[in-house]
Amino acid sequence: KNKRTQEIYDGNIIASFAFHYIPERDSLVTASVWNQWWNLFWDPPFDRLRDYLGTELGLYFAFVTYLGKWLWIVSLVGIPVYVCFLVKLSNAVISALNLAYSIVMAIWSALFIEFWKRRNATLNLQWGTVHLDFDQSDTVRPEFFGTEMAGFHFDRGFVKLKDLADKRIAELPDPPRSEPDRLKTLRELGIPVNRHYSTTARFKTFIVSGFLTVFFASVAVAAQVVLLYYRDDIIDGLGNVPAAAIVPGIANGLIIVILDVCWGILSVWITNRENHRSEESYNNSLVYKRFAFQFFSNYTSLFYLAFFKPFLSRIENQCTIGWLESTPTCMSDMSFQLLTLLATRVTVSQALEVLIPYLTSKLGVFLTWIKVRRQIKKSGNANRSTSTSRYYQESNLAPYHSVMNDYNEIVILFGYVALFAVAFPLAPLLVLFNNVVEVRVDAFKILKIFQRVNARAADEIGAWEHALQVISYVSVVTNLGMLVYTSNSLDFLFGDLDAWQRMLAFFLMENILFGGKILVATIPDVPMPASKKLERQKFDIALAFGIDMKDHYKAKRQFEHPVVSKDEEDAAAFSFDIASDLSGEN
């Protein structure tokens, strides 16, 4: 596979892809897209998807479906909370609900991540990817360049063997003079020779890419802040237009989508310049760039409404009266903004995900048809068929490059829920419906619209798990910040609080929630049944091949009656392990 990838990169092979097996593909489309479309608790056929598409995509579908199950929990909690807001219960009740829901959302994200790890471990055991080594030293990206020298790579860097190489070359009666001959001789002598990219050059590229990421993220933040700062002026300028109130939110959502698409292209260009050696390192770097940028581009408007607008002197009185009557806060503005952003992002993203590859494939088929028609006219054979083979048609389908964009969409929506659902408790329900649709839409586009993917192995969701962890920890700050500073809920529960009391309440609850997250993190990543099966596998391997035979795998002599002897040597002769025998009697 690696050699084929290198040949494609060098231009020796035009394209290389597997063809769809039509009966299995169509059966999978029926089972994964159209089956039980009315069932919100439905699971796609994970094992069949994994067999046809590979464990990387199988794991993606499992992740999205598992997130949907956890979204049900906060959706069922959020619906009655939102109903209480609508019927305008007393301020004390609404404030208490705000407090409870903030705590639930902060803990929910941490619990989801930990239990997903357990689900992931179970799937790894089921799919045989427990001991998958994703970053082997002999798997090199064809785009990687560097200076060939004696040495080898390991997971933290490069070990040079110049001293050993010089010594072995010096021992030769006729040492090579040119560098290519020298490297060839070293390989013949059994000394590893690999491409090495200097640490200094790599550090410089990382500095430049980091600067570009920060710069473009700042541009995205500035554009949204300007739009939000003049939001009310824009609404007033539209006059009596019925949809004037939602225009700024829709504009903000479209700006976010456009910026994300532009940054997606630019981030690939930047990451290519970093010259990563392994596919895992390349993907992780790209994930970190995209998430860092999109964290600010997607959430800036909500951070602004929650923590900046209420304290700006120019518009300090422009927050509307919301759930807490007679108390102007920005919670209602946040609720409306979050609803608009979710609706815009989900609608536009779903359209782009399906329409662009569909139109691209249809355009390719149309151009192929025109090409065939021209060839027929030139040949003068008017009776020749214009139809093309299925294989030629599949070559015109758009290739499915990576699952990264699909993960990216799900993680950003997860952030909307974990960070800001307190402002709009129906947000988990909206994201849940999107997840239900997302699984089917993704299955349809991957199976029908794209070329058949090259199956890739994976044992985890990679760097996206780190992104989820960041969102989980930030959710503590955002949920408590909205509770203490944005909604003024504590004032109705404990009386009017001054600045110091608010700060004390914030840090006290923050420490409690972070302590709760630490306790949640102690949950074992591997469930007990899976752990037992893994240990049984290790035992069977040790028993069959004598590999890694641990002491507790070995049989110990058992006696029907205890052996009593005053002679220590006699006791040792009759006992395999005195210490374990004694401990077993307790």
Features:
single chain; 586 residues; mainly alpha; three-stranded antiparallel beta sheet; 21 helices; 67% helix; 3% strand
Helix content class: 55-70%
Number of domains: 3
Number of helices: 21
Poorly predicted ranges: 559-566, 568-586
Mean pLDDT: 81
Q: Name the helix and strand elements from N-terminus to C-terminus, one letter apiece.
A: HHHHHEEHHEHHHHHHHHHHHHHH
Oligomer: single chain
Provide the β-strand percentage band: under 5%
Walk across the major sheet and give the strand order. Answer: 2-1-3
How would you sum up the global shape? globular
Task: State the distance separating the first and last CA atoms.
Answer: 57 Å
Rg calculated over all Cα atoms? 30 Å
Instruction: Report the sheet with the most strands, covering strand number, pairing sense and barrel closure.
Output: 3 strands, antiparallel
In a few lines, what is going on in this structure?
This protein folds into three domains: about 450 residues, no CATH class; about 50 residues, no CATH class; about 55 residues, no CATH class. The chain is about 65% helix and about 5% strand. The chain is built from 21 helices and three strands.
What does this structure look like?
The chain crosses the membrane at residues 57-83, 89-113, 205-230, 250-270, 291-308, 351-370, 410-433. Keywords: Membrane, Transmembrane, Transmembrane helix. The protein has 586 residues and is mainly α. It has three domains: 2-135 and 201-523, no CATH class; 147-196, no CATH class; 529-585, no CATH class. Helices cover 67% and strands 3% of the residues. It contains 21 helices and three strands. It has helices at residues 2-10, 22-34, 46-53, 55-86, 91-127, 162-170, 179-188, 199-229, 231-237, 247-273, 279-307, 331-379, 390-395, 404-420, 427-449, 464-486, 489-494, 499-521, 528-545, 568-574, 578-585, and strands at residues 147-154, 157-160, 193-196. Strands 2-1-3 form a three-stranded antiparallel beta sheet. α12 runs antiparallel to α14 (404-420) and α14 runs antiparallel to α15. The longest helix has 49 residues, at 331-379. Residues 559-566 and 568-586 have low confidence and may be disordered.
